[in-house]
Design goal:
Length: 142
Amino acid sequence: MKFLIFEGADRVGKTTLIHEFQKLTNYKYLIADRLFVSQLVYEKLFNRIISLKDYTELYTNMLKLKNFMIFVHVDCSEEKLKQRILSDKTHKNQLQEILQAKKLFTETFEQFKETFEIIHIDTTKTSSEQLAKELLNKLESR
């Protein structure tokens, strides 16, 4: 069994997808909602200085878990993300920040694609129920 780490910007549909996936699989998988990649993305987004020692430790820990984890990069189109943000009073004032985070997640996963197992899920047009089935099919076909 693999440890699934769902990563992506706010409002892309991570939590909704996780709930649908857990219902579909009867909580069969160990799941985290954000972990390593989010730490790297938000350190960069908020100009927090991460020391070389901390970065090395984080990356080393990721490599240790490499054979046991799969990243699930949840994303959607920029237009859909804008609609979701603007319809949510809590996140309305964070539009540019969330769009920048979206870009940073994409860039980070592009850098990691040769080293880590990554499944990309686009929530733009498909229901969370269908996406959960799609994710399960991808996992079972590995």
